[in-house]
Write a structure and sequence with these properties.
mainly alpha, 2 helices, elongated
């Protein structure tokens, strides 16, 4: 683990301390978890962006997901 120094405004720090105390954790652990969640969110947003970009480049064709009528039959008919 590495110690860092950061600047944070007082109202935000007060809220972080309040929530950390309510969760029975410390400021550092709370901020670490918040950063992990923010990084996960960014990763998801990037994947969604790439996904949308792929579909924009290669749109779904009219019959691409069409299901044959015979595949819709269930059971003995």
């Amino acid at each position: 683990m590495k110690t860092i120094q950061m600047t944070i405004d007082e109202p935000l720090l007060t809220e972080v301390d309040r929530v950390s105390q309510a969760l029975k954790t410390n400021r550092s652990e709370f901020i670490r978890e918040a950063l992990k969640l923010a990084l996960q969110r960014q990763k998801i947003l990037e994947l969604e962006r790439r996904h949308a970009e792929g579909y924009a480049r290669y749109p779904v064709q009219a019959q691409e997901f069409a299901i044959a009528e015979s595949d819709l039959v269930w059971g003995d008919s």
